[in-house]
């Protein structure tokens, strides 16, 4: 049995995770009029009773105009009493057995598809710089990117300040609803991630040009959130490691982590990828054998962060499938919390039933899920996102099954 996996950890704000296993954020697509409905209550009641140390919700949009999905929960500044009641019911369902739950807040930026949110079909999305998505060099991929996403509009400073306030008031709403914290989504190519990256932020004003200036919006969001919530409310951030390649980029990334760590931040979740490079779904090499060393996609970057900032609470999400791999990561000192995504869908009680169960031997405490493949006809389409998207869609359907009170299924083995 593991020695560290079942031990508590406390954030600087005072929130205690009773163990190191966190149900990671995943696409849910079950919102009813942008609010959490009965499906959310059912799914989060199940996860909340599964023995997890904590739960991270799927994306909660902070903008009603620019959305990543019309099926996602969206914070509405003019929330009705019915919306307020729905959020409180959601928070209660997730935390009924004491499992702390944290709301993941996101602005999609240039990854907001056409016709999502309250904007016209030809109205562009917004981004730090007017750089369109590149989802591939093929003719179909270029056409899809142009049709679905187009070229974003470069944000003005007024746009930036509006987004900062959107994150802040959404965090306040999460607190008032009864959640224990929020996580700012600064990864996977969404808006905050796009500001942090030199690939998508080529601004020359106060929000671009250097690593520190690219991190400025994130610092402002954290400070704005902290002004509206009590010190006991946990604030974390999800951070990309996928843009790091080479010593210079690593140094700039670590500089940004240091600036963020100086703020009142409780934890940093390390993930990676974007629509352009969906590593968060597939990892570096989906065909690689699962070993303790290869099990976590982003552990090497976590080691670099830990060496530079030893007191920062770190969570790594991506690829963990076995108790031994999780325990090895914890014992290495590179990580404090283990984020578990897809296995948490298929096995919502995975901690209680397997990972923390003394009766299950280490060699049996493992979950290996094959990649869910698209139908053979779609696999003929030369677009990388199709195969990765099929896997995401499969798990969205399983979350919906959980929301309907049904038993989720694992992908079929091929």
From TrEMBL:
The keyword Signal does not apply. Residues 17-354 form the NADH:flavin oxidoreductase/NADH oxidase N-terminal domain. Keywords: Flavoprotein, FMN, Oxidoreductase. InterPro entries: Aldolase_TIM (IPR013785), NADH_flavin_oxidoreductase (IPR051799), OxRdtase_FMN_N (IPR001155). One of its GO terms (molecular function) is oxidoreductase activity. Belongs to the NADH:flavin oxidoreductase/NADH oxidase family. This is FMN-linked oxidoreductase. Coiled coil: none annotated. It comes from the Eukaryota. PANTHER family: BINDING OXIDOREDUCTASE, PUTATIVE (AFU_ORTHOLOGUE AFUA_2G08260)-RELATED (PTHR43656). Gene3D superfamilies: Aldolase class I. The keyword Flavoprotein applies.
């Amino acid at each position: 049995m593991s020695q560290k996996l079942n031990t508590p950890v406390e954030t600087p704000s005072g929130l205690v995770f009773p163990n190191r296993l966190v149900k990671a954020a995943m696409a849910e697509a079950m919102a009813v009029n942008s609010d959490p409905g009965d499906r959310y209550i059912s799914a989060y009641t199940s996860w909340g009773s599964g023995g997890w140390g904590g739960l991270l919700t799927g994306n909660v949009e902070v903008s009603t105009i620019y959305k990543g999905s019309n099926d996602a929960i969206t914070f509405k500044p003019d929330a009705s009493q019915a919306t307020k009641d729905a959020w409180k019911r959601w928070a209660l369902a997730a935390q009924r057995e004491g499992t702390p739950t944290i709301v993941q807040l996101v602005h999609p930026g240039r990854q907001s598809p056409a016709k999502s949110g309250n904007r016209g079909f030809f109205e562009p999305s917004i981004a730090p710089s007017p750089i369109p998505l590149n989802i591939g060099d093929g003719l179909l991929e270029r056409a899809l990117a142009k049709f679905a996403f187009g070229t974003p509009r470069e944000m003005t400073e007024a746009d930036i300040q509006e987004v900062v306030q959107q994150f802040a008031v959404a965090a306040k709403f999460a607190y008032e609803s009864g959640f224990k914290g929020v996580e700012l989504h600064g990864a996977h190519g969404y808006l905050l991630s796009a500001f942090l990256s030199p690939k998508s932020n080529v601004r020359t004003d106060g929000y671009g040009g250097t690593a520190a200036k690219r991190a400025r919006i994130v610092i402002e969001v954290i400070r704005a959130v902290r002004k509206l919530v009590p010190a006991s409310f946990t604030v974390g951030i999800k951070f990309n490691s996928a843009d790091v390649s080479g010593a210079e980029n690593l140094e700039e990334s670590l500089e940004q982590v240091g600036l963020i760590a100086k703020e009142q931040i409780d934890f940093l979740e390390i993930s990676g990828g974007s629509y352009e490079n969906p590593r968060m779904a597939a990892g570096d090499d989906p065909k690689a054998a699962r070993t303790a060393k290869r099990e976590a996609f982003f552990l090497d970057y976590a080691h670099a962060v830990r060496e530079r900032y030893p007191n920062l609470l770190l969570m790594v999400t991506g690829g963990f499938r076995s108790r031994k791999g999780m325990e090895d990561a914890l014992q290495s000192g590179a990580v404090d919390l283990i984020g578990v995504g897809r296995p948490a869908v298929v096995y919502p009680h995975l901690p209680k039933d397997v990972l923390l169960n003394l009766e299950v031997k280490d060699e049996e405490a493992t979950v290996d899920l094959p990649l869910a493949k698209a139908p053979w006809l779609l696999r003929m389409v030369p677009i990388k996102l199709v195969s990765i998207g099929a896997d995401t869609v499969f798990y969205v359907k399983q979350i919906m099954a959980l929301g309907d009170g049904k038993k989720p299924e694992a992908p079929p083995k091929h």
